[in-house]
């Protein structure tokens, strides 16, 4: 997103929030880019439970011995 400095003065809070979300924020003077706003510390992606819901058929019990077929896959 690019915005002229005069307009950015009125929307500074919005621009800071956008930069914190990782969006590119460029301030321009006379239509020419002069400054880029970036977050001071990169934000970590938040862990979400269920991201792979439906993608995994079953979770193996790692304490149970493997079947002959499972062992054959590792050879």
Question: What do these coordinates show?
Answer:
With 75 residues, the protein is an alpha+beta fold. It has helices at residues 5-10, 12-20, 68-74, and strands at 2-4, 25-29, 32-37. Strand 2 and strand 3 form a beta hairpin. The longest helix has 9 residues, at 12-20.
The CATH architecture of the domain at 1-41 is: 3-Layer(aba) Sandwich
Give the termini separation.
54 Å
CATH class of the domain at 1-41: Alpha Beta
Strand order of the largest sheet: 1-2-3
CATH superfamily of the domain at 1-41: YefM-like domain
Major beta-sheet overview: 3 strands, mixed
The secondary-structure class comes to alpha+beta
Shape: rod-shaped
What name does the CATH topology of the domain at 1-41 carry?
YefM-like fold
């Amino acid at each position: 997103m690019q915005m002229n400095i005069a307009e950015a003065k009125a929307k500074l809070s919005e621009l800071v929030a956008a930069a914190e979300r990782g969006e590119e924020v460029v301030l321009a003077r006379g239509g020419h880019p002069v400054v880029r706003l970036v977050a001071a510390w990169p934000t970590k992606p938040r862990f979400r439970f269920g991201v792979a819901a439906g993608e995994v058929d079953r979770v193996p019990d790692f304490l149970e011995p493997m079947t002959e077929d499972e062992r054959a896959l590792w050879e």
